[in-house]
Every structure is written in C-alpha cells, then in structure tokens.
Amino acid sequence: MAPSVMLDNASDFQSTVATAHSNGTPPRILLLSPPSLSSHPEILDDIVAAHDRSATDIQMLDRLSLSLVHLPDTTYDIVLILLDADQTRTESSRLLTSSVLQLIVKSLKPGGTLTSQDGTLADTESSERSEAIFAGLVIENGNMVKPNYSATDSVPLRLGKQKADGGAMATTSPVGTGVVSLNLTGKRKNGPVEDSTAAPAG
User: Mind listing the pLDDT tens digit for each residue in 114-172?
Assistant: First the structure.
C-alpha cells in the first residue's frame, strides 16, 4: 500500500496582532523586508495578505540603509522586521545599524512598537536590541516601544523647607519676580557689607 501524503497549506507567517484605534481606523504598519525576500515574491505576498493594504507600507531594509528611501516622521503604529527567506534574521540584523534604527524610531508614533516577525527582537540579547534602546526605545510586553512622553505626569518641585541643622534654606522672593534666593547659613546680617581690607601700617 502506497504511503499517504498530506500537504500543509497553512502559512508559516506569524501575523502581528494589531488592534484598531478607538475611532475605528486601522493602525499604520510599516513592513521592513530584507533583500532576500525580493527573490521570493510568494513569501512577501503571503505576508502582505495578512495586513490591511490601505494602512500598510513596505520598504526594503537595504534601500533604507543606503538612504535611497526616506521614512515619514511620526507615522507608524507598528514597524515589523520581516524574516529572511531562510526564516532567520541574519540579513536584517546586519542591516539594522544605529543610523537605520534612528530613522525607524523617528517614523514611529509615540507609543508605537518595533517588533520582528518571529517576535524575538526584544527577547534576545543582541546588538540590534541594544542599538534600539540607545535610539530611544524601551522594552514593553516583548516589544520595543517608543515612549509617549506627552503622557508623562509632571512632578512638582517643592522648595522652602529649612534644614533642622541650620543648613541651606530656599526661600521665594516677592510674588511675580520668579527669583529663588538661597540663605546658606541662616545668619546673614542686614545692612551694608563691612570692608574687610586691612588698614595700612602707620
């Protein structure tokens, strides 16, 4: 009896989880492709099919590293680094230099994420992860995230309490001047400054 053969038609692509904005618009996604995928259009087609084409852009990593293409600032919610044709990240890791990562970070919206197709970019100790952190990203939930500094709470600065040992004390000057004076000893005398110049010998 001849052995039966079963074909696996499932895609090997691990889709990026992306939720729509509160207003119902899909998130803007940038797919960064390594050069090897240009000779495997069927792989790239499968990846593109898993995303909303109206909200998804594609750029080649090698063209970005050579400054042949430019990314718009503060545009993308997600930047996804695609796997090489052999399902590794050898090519993309080599192309993700500090200058390229700085361009990617600039293109992300505050709160936007940089991730890889295999989901290991933030989990693996690598030079690309270190460079991403140096470029301004932080690690959150397995992704590299651009901090949303506009949502950071301000911390009030409190001045005016004198040290118990009579040390430095900060006091505010009359309202409207915006000047803060320091009383370093707590014993400063009022009146003109005494002349400490020694009298010449008679």
Answer: 999 988 888 878 888 889 999 999 998 778 999 987 755 454 555 555 544 454 444 44
Residue type, 15: S
> What is the Cα–Cα distance from 84 to 32, expressed in whole angstroms?
11
Copy the structure tokens of residue 154.
């301000």
Extract the tokens encoding 146. Answer: 């651009």
What is the model's pTM? 0.64
The 10s digit of each residue's pLDDT in 158-199 is: 555 554 445 444 444 445 444 444 454 555 555 555 555 555
Long-range contacts of 182-191, Cβ-Cβ distance < 8 Å, separation of 24 or more? 186/162
**Closest residue by Cα to residue 115 from 10, 20, 14:** 14
Please work out, in degrees rounded to the nearest 5, the angle formed at the alpha carbon of residue 73 by the alpha carbons of 72 and 78.
Answer: 85
